[in-house]
Amino acid sequence: MGAKLIAAGRILEMSSMELLDRIDQELAANPALELSEDSVCPVCRCSLRGGVCLNCGLGRTDRPTAEAMVRYLSEPPLPRQRPEAAEEEPEDPYLRAESPVTLQEHLRMQVRAAMPAEDYGVADYLVANINDRGLLDCDAAEAARDVDVPLERVNSVLATIQGFEPAGVGARTPQEALLIQLRQLQEEDGKNDGCAERLIREHWHELAAHAYSKLARSLKVGLGDIEAAVEFIRSNLDPYPGRQFRVFWQHQLKNPEALQRADVIISRKVDEYVVEIVESSDFVLRISESFRELQRYVARRRRGWMSSDWKSAVDNLKRADWFIQSIKMRRRTLQAITEALVEKQRAFLDTGQEEKLQPLTQAKLASIVNKHESTVSRAVSDKFVLLPPPANRIVGFDYFFTPSLSVKSVISQLVQRESPYRPLTDRQICQILATRGFKVARRTVAKYRLALNIPSSEQRGRR
Q1: pLDDT per residue over 117-144, tens digit each?
Q2: Distance, CA of 440 to CA of 455 (rounded, Å)
Q3: Which of 33, 241, 313, 410 shows the smallest number of beta carbons within 10 Å?
Q4: In sequence order, what are the residues at sequence separation of 6 or more whose Cβ sits closer than 8 angstroms to the Cβ of residue 13?
């Protein structure tokens, strides 16, 4: 592949935001390239008013001559007329908003407020080794060796940190975090559930496996008591206390793709779907007519110009033309791919139901649009599509290229509707899928179930 082809492939891969940045860089580096703006003078690039340039006086309908361009470049420009004073924009309150505090910063502030200065070094070391989940990643003996203090002093400082907010922070395991939170609940609110404490302390693995009947027999209590204790743990405790302390935007990232800027918009008009490439409505690039005229002027009088100037002018024109053609190629490719997707997934777009998605691979789509598979892969890489109602959301192009997506959707629905006391096994799910026309093996069902973060039937059930 030549250098230009490689660069064109890179432009094809870019998202709309990356492409805008790339265009800004090219506009700044190449004088032969410009944005199409009818209200700008083609010679001096100043504002036009009533068809007349406010700076050089050139009429809007007049074609700029090479002599005018050379004269403008060789002479200092006239003072630019100040535009009419616009209304002052109101101050953005978010510019003065305080930066969010991290979990480590939050703990260090509590260290400074609750500990003597001689313990700051030990506490800072421990806080630096607390991960985003709120658990301690280092060993106390290791910390004592690194900061050169006795082990008893490290344990004392760690015990103080474990009393900070959020409750349970600094625990070494999720089990220890739950026990610390139970102790704090008892001290602060008098809440205590002896059964819950015994479950966490003595029967941790059975609790994780949801073996409720076995736990009831071991503790000699009723099954209802076990279920009440489990509900108490779920409602009041968190095995990863760091999740309680998040910056404000992390609470909103349940669907990160929803915050992405769509590169392609699919809209519905009557019974037809219309595909719009977002960047095509944002700008129109063109080669500067003034620069073309200057290049012609230099070509007619090459003796008066250095060869490097002539070569630079030609290179800039070729580069600008290539850049514009690369963007047009990107637009045509995305348009063709999206229109083929619309035709293939029309049933899904009409209903918004994932079960209606047709299994599709990039190789199959490449054959439909008559392009190489690598071209399709580059074109859809890291790009997002805004779907019309009833789906009405932003999804990545990869959403359409999962051959097993509809199978996964059915598996997810089956698990959601199953009885908690008789969860479906992988073999039973496989048999149900066969009745619905999906021929998949039990191992494949298990693989899809793990991909959906669904536990096994033994872990899902209540016994």
Answers
A1: 888 888 888 888 888 888 888 888 888 8
A2: 19
A3: 410
A4: 378, 379, 381, 382
Lowest mean per-residue pLDDT among 68-82, 262-276, 350-364 = 68-82
Residue holding tokens 């619905």? 436
* Cα pseudo-dihedral 453, 454, 456, 460, rounded to 10: 130
Q: Could you count the other beta carbons within 10 Å of the beta carbon of residue 214?
A: 14
Residue with the two structure tokens 């030549």: 2
For the chain, what percentages of helix, strand and coil (3-state, to nearest 5) are there?
A: 60, 10, 35
Ramachandran angles phi, psi of 286, nearest 5° = -155, 165
Closest CA to 36 of 288, 290, 368, 414: 288
Q: Tell me the longest C-alpha to C-alpha distance in the chain.
A: 104
**Cα end-to-end distance, the chain, whole Å:** 62
Q: Count CA within 13 A, CB hemisphere, residue 171.
A: 23
Closest-CA residue to 318 (of 7, 23, 30): 30
C-alpha distance from residue 453 to each of 182, 275, 450 (Å): 28, 34, 5
